[in-house]
Amino acid sequence: MNFPIISALILLPTIGSIFLFFSKDNSENKLTFKYVALFTSVVNFLLSIYLWFLFDTTISDFQFVEDRIWLVGFINYKVGIDGISILFIILTTFITPLCILSVNNTVKIRLRDFLIAILIMESFMIGVFCALDLFVFYLFFEAGLIPMFLIIGIWGGPRRVYSAFKFFLYTLLGSVLMLVAIISIYWITGTTDVIELYELGIDAKYQNLLWLAFFSSFAVKTPMWPVHTWLPDAHVEAPTAGSVLLAAILLKMAGYGFIRFSLGLFPVASDLFTPLIYILSIIAIIFTSLIALMQEDMKKLIAYSSVAHMGFVTLGIFTIEQQGIEGSIIQMISHGLISAALFLCVGVVYDRMHSRLINTYGGIISIVPKYSVLFMIFTLAALGLPGTTGFIGEFLILMGVFKDNFLVAVIASLGVILGAAYMLWLYKRVIFGKLINKELIKMNDLNKIEYLILTSLAIPTIFFGFYPEPLINTIEVSVNDLINMYNLNLYTKS
Amino acid sequence: MELSVITLPLIASIISGFFGKYVGDRNSELVTSALVSVSAIISFIIFYNVIAHNYEENIIIATWINSGNLNVNWSMNIDPLSAVMLVVVTSVSSLVHIYSIGYMSNDPHKPRFMAYLSLFTFAMLMLVTSDNFIQLFFGWEGVGLCSYFLIGFWYKKETANAAAIKAFLVNRVGDFGLALGIFLIFYLFGTVNFDEVFKQIPSVSAAGVTPFLDKELIFLGLNFMAVDLICILLFLGAMGKSAQIFLHTWLPDAMEGPTPVSALIHAATMVTAGVFLVVRCSPLYEYSELALNIITLVGMTTAIFAATVALVQTDIKKIIAYSTCSQLGYMFFATGVGAYNVAMFHLFTHAFFKALLFLGSGSVIHAFKDEQDINQMGGVWKKLPYTYVLMIIGTLALTGFPLLSGFYSKDAIIEFAYLKGNTLGYYASGIGIFTAFLTSIYSWRLIFKTFHGNYNNKNIKIEETHESPLVMLIPLILLAIGSIFAGYIFKDLFIGHHGTISDYWSQSIFFLEPLSSEHPPYWIVYFTPLLVIISIPLSYYLFVINKKFVEEVAKANQPLYKFLLNKWYFDELYEKVFVKSSKKAGRFLWKFLDLRIIDGFGPDGVSTIIKKLSIKANKFQSGYIYHYAFIMLLGFSALLTLLIIK
């Protein structure tokens, strides 16, 4: 048997966290903890890049599949990747070391436990993106909640308990329904193996309810309007690294779930509910963009903008067009990079001034020039300027939507105008203008680590904006296959 | 070699932008100016090759987006149209680079400024040399971004920041139309490549397939011809970028940026991108009578609107900005009547004399130490002799004084509008003539108020005003040469010679019906120049000799004067309708819908209900045995009753 590279990816961070768990928690070991965590996550990143290198983009089958019996005749531990999952895995392994690097200033207490939470979280997230059994997927999907809940609840801001519970309740409520749906799929078809289910298909009469159950879970995690209100609170209270993980990776689980399960397993229902998704998505895009315009808290503003950006993602997925789905995947990767960077940017000034309010700042461009440049790059990427990944995602999505529904595309395009408005206005109020708050003069520009983190996010944002071919090439065959399968199942089942 | 036209400005921008600190102020100025100048020289060589050898090439640089049937390349497409744009962009850009060395000599952020200028040049070149709509969109937004950076260059000024954001957002509204137009093109043609799209238009499709030109679309319950809709959406983009009426409000505000920027971006190059787009898409527009009529209407309305506003403004740069707006209106109604080549000709000549006027006004502002109000100037023509003469050349060219460049291009527009031979055409030429008259009046008003009459500035003594250094004057002189001769020299190439139509454009511009080659009636040929010449002494009388008269007219017509002074109240209207209402909506959606309704009935509501219920449930557990016994008894008797009834 070949080397189980996927399981290695999943387990490696956990092994790292076990090392941390058994080491003594005192302040002398702080640096060691960080090195251990960093080393683990960097090795994992390199491993995932190696996996990308090995990955064959010309075939649509799942690759590197591992299938082990777990509960005989019931659940198998089955993992594997296709072109869609691999990008999310790389996003996860790329963001995690950056998060670990960023904890320097933000986490003052219980650093060891924080690092354990991050590493465990990485394991779970990778698990989500390569699970090929519904139960395995569910376990990873739900387990991911726990470290996040702890990160907000322990290391969060003053209203952390409220936010943590809000986050937990919201997401759990949806997930319970998904569990019920998974069990009933098992009763209906006798298997929870995703590949088998793709071939079998599910009878049209069951699809609607099952789709809604999965939807309730994914909609909360995306988050879609109107179940998005946990996100701003969670972001505001979470420490920087937590916000980064939440925005960059956790939100992507739902988008991935929509593609893998809602489209893959329930094409008839997806077809039926597409108008619902469209309506909720454009409401998300327009409403939350308007709300973002009025925010006074930088983190809240970016959180609301995340809802709007994810609105584009859900819009693109349900076009069932090559451009739409590919655009959505790229938009998710791009949002992973950009929102991570924006939260880190907020973290940088928060560490120095301990305020997230926009009106604390203003006129800091000459005090923190490096920071201003990088912040500008991410601002522009967030508003979808051509030459950044943000543009590729949004433009492809809108092209896909346009083929499907003229009016929806027109309304969604209005969101692009609003996106420019709130991002530029935010930037203007923070960076430009006259320096009024005299305390800002004491601010230091980016230190080496912050500079490293932000530039390593800026480089792929720009590189893939000019040359998205590696990304599109990876997903192309899988997306194409997914669409064919969708249309075939739609035809045979209805 | 051709590629270096595009790459040199990019390299210049990277050197100056990222390494400006290391190479130093002076070196970044020199490097950027030199590289862009080289790029200009190569552009001239390309232009020569295109004229002399019909040189054409489409260089594919790399793939950009390749998703499903969407294939987009980074490319450099050289054809007669892009060659003209290359020359305009790089030559004005290199002169502005050089001029900036003098103009920005006291600014602490020189490398940054030069980097933006070079980056702008790069983006503009990407725009004009694209072979597909999406790279055009890249350049389109790229120039918008650089414009945003440069308008807000003096980031400490609140007004500059506001103007920068305004410019970006108003342009985004236009881009919204452009993007939708591109989506529609992709939807209907399955490609975004110019040639592939244009090739498909007239062809009669196979049986059962509706040919493109007969396609109709239903949008919001209305039937549209597909070609009309595409053209209108693309034109919306053009209106934003070229500051046409309704989307013009950003251009006057953009004058917050340094003057070289106004010359390069907001006069000669970026704002003409809209005209370029329409000309580039002539194979589409030729089939859309509706869109062409809309363009004509919008163009002539902008021309006259901006001219009326320019009459009363007092900021030297704003007057020129409105003048630009107005001249762009001319270019648009030229395309609207189908005279794309004439529009390009006016674009070409306008680049020279408008850049000259802006840089000249920069020289004046420099002399007055950043004073821009023409009421604060006057009587300095002896102190600034070179600037004075150069500004006069620019003004003569702009107003269309015989034999200068504006004369050839502007009068050609009016003539072709007349020759169009329909009501709209006659109307447009009438408006064109009247606007030409207004143009002369406000242009000479600017000259006379700035250079003649009494010296009005109280802050600076007249002795302190000084002529600009040579590094600023040389670009002005070169532009002045262009303003004088460009019209005469290139008239035959762009339009044609005595009744024949130039075939230079045959590879780039599509004419459904050949342009009329008739001779326009003599009265129209002589009337406009006559008006232009008469207006010089008239303006001198109004603005130097008998100032009282103008003041009295303004006083007698206060409402009209206010209306013009406030630019037809567009800003106030937009502020109310769009800005304030968006903010209100945002606040409402946030405070009411999200916090009150969703959270109130959602998580918070549920948790308070559960809390209340559990408090109630708590009360049952009082701890007294007789309470429990009582409840048990109640339950027991209820059950018993139920059984008995059954």
Strand tally of chain A: 2
Inertia-based shape of chain B = globular
Quaternary state, please?
heterodimer
Alpha carbon gyration radius of chain B: 31 Å
- Helix % of chain B is over 70%
What is the share of helical residues of chain A?
over 70%
Most extensive interface: A-B, 59 and 54 residues
Write the layout of secondary structure elements.
The complex is a heterodimer of chains A (494) and B (646).
Chain A: H1 5-21, H2 30-54, E1 63-71, E2 75-81, H3 83-106, H4 111-130, H5 134-143, H6 145-155, H7 160-189, H8 194-200, H9 204-221, H10 230-237, H11 240-265, H12 267-293, H13 298-317, H14 322-353, H15 369-382, H16 389-404, H17 406-431, H18 448-466, H19 469-493
Antiparallel strand pairs in A: 1-2
Helix pairs in contact in A: 1-2, 1-4, 2-3, 2-4, 3-4, 3-11, 3-14, 3-19, 4-5, 4-6, 4-11, 5-7, 6-7, 7-9, 7-10, 9-11, 9-12, 10-13, 11-13, 11-14, 12-13, 12-17, 13-14, 13-16, 13-17, 14-15, 14-16, 14-18, 14-19, 15-17, 15-18, 16-17, 16-18
Chain B: H1 2-23, H2 25-53, E1 57-67, E2 70-78, H3 80-103, H4 110-128, H5 133-151, H6 158-189, H7 194-200, E3 216-219, E4 222-225, H8 226-241, H9 250-253, H10 259-268, H11 273-280, H12 282-285, H13 289-312, H14 316-336, H15 340-367, H16 385-399, H17 405-419, H18 423-451, H19 470-494, H20 522-545, H21 547-556, H22 558-565, H23 570-601, H24 603-620, H25 625-645
Antiparallel strand pairs in B: 1-2, 3-4
Helix pairs in contact in B: 1-2, 1-4, 2-3, 2-4, 3-4, 3-10, 3-15, 3-19, 4-5, 5-6, 6-8, 8-11, 8-13, 10-15, 11-15, 13-14, 13-18, 14-15, 14-17, 14-18, 15-16, 15-17, 15-19, 16-18, 16-19, 17-18, 17-19, 17-20, 18-20, 20-21, 23-24
